Amino acid sequence: MLELLGSGLFSIWLEMAKAQIQPLEALSVLAWQGSSNLILVPDPSPAGAITVHQYLNGLITSKLIDKNLMSSQGIWLQSGPMLMANHQGTIPLPAASLTKVATSLVALKAWGANHQFETLVSSTGPLVNGVVQGDLVITGSGDPMFVGEEAIALGNTLNKIGIKQVKGNLVITGNFAMNFQRHPLLAGQLLKQALNHQTWSRSVVFQYSVMPKGTPKPQVMIAGNIKVDSQPKVGQNLLIRHFSLPLQKIIKEMNVFSNNDIAEMLADSVGGADVVSTTASQLARFPKSEILLINGSGLGKENRISPRGVCAMFMALQREASFYQLSLADLFPTSGLDHRGTIHSRHMPKATVMKTGTLNDVSALAGVVPTRDRGLVWFTIINRGGNVSAFRVQQDKLLQTLEKELEVSTDIPDPVTPRLDNSLPDFGAANRNQVLYKQS
Length: 440
Hints:
Blueprint: H1 11-18, E1 41-42, H2 47-61, E2 74-79, E3 82-87, E4 93-94, H3 99-111, E5 118-123, E6 127-128, E7 131-132, E8 136-141, H4 148-160, E9 165-166, E10 170-175, H5 184-194, H6 202-209, E11 221-222, E12 226-229, E13 237-243, H7 247-257, H8 260-270, H9 273-284, E14 291-292, E15 304-305, H10 307-322, E16 353-359, E17 362-370, E18 376-384, H11 388-406, E19 433-435
Parallel strand pairs: 1-3, 7-9, 8-10, 9-11, 10-12
Antiparallel strand pairs: 2-3, 2-18, 4-15, 5-8, 5-13, 6-7, 13-19, 14-15, 16-17, 17-18
Helix pairs in contact: 2-11, 3-7, 3-8, 3-9, 3-10, 9-10
């Protein structure tokens, strides 16, 4: 493997020149742009390799790592068909929340950017004078962002069609979660509480406080208990079809805040970690041996992805997003555009689309930065060591140095220009509750 220290300033670049990646190795991450025989070639300019060489040496001189940990650091820099720098780039390393790049890719491919998860509300008995004579049945289909505002809006819609009480139980069936609580009994308790403003907790009061001024407070009193039915079913009387936020918004929120619950729910909905890893490697065209997952979030060091695999998945996401007239900035936090979540306090070049990953001894950063001299530069940096916050600082400096070497892009390229407004998700929107109830 590439030896960076004590071997000369151009060792990285020379190593790349000796080891071009052949199509038979199953890395044709750019084949979708044109020729199926397209291969990666070493960048004729050593600027990227020099920058990475200095970065890795800096980790040692600043005592963030010692030489024994050099093999635990992974870097891949690529611009179009040009491989700019590679250190342990084909070795699957603990990727932390870079795993969510794989989950994003597979979910987007499976359902499309505009997909909305449906939650059906039905009853097992008729509505008589505002009282459901039976159970209220909630049938979920995997909405990972059914939160308090959604429940409040649902309660208001139930009130609108005349429902104020439920004589029976609240039955949870199908794949239903609330406020990222995936245990159906606990999710049902949260929903029951939110449907009746007289039983609100402080957290529900807060969620209500961020809704539009004048939003009614629902009152749906459920006399019975929470029951869970493992087999999805629907009561004989359909009342409401609730639509989730569009998948594009769900993916963006997941990546902005690196939300593990959303990631794991999405991964489970497409078939689990094995399906995510297999499908992601196929879509991004890199070896399956370079992505080993136990879940869709990245929790656990058993989740391992090679740096080049992460870059390949970002490029595949760019392609999938373009099918819906979207860009990567519509799916991931982007410097200069987003200020919430994991991008807060980071200092990266303008219009850098990125995803972070953090475990107790892992700090990872991947994405794409636009430059003038090399266009889009795809990057993955995976660091292992004890000082995660210091790694973050050095990662930002690496990108800043790279930007100086390759010059700032004066125009923001299409793949990192958002197509949609960058406003917050419209939680609790009444128009996502479709009334199905027909009065007899």
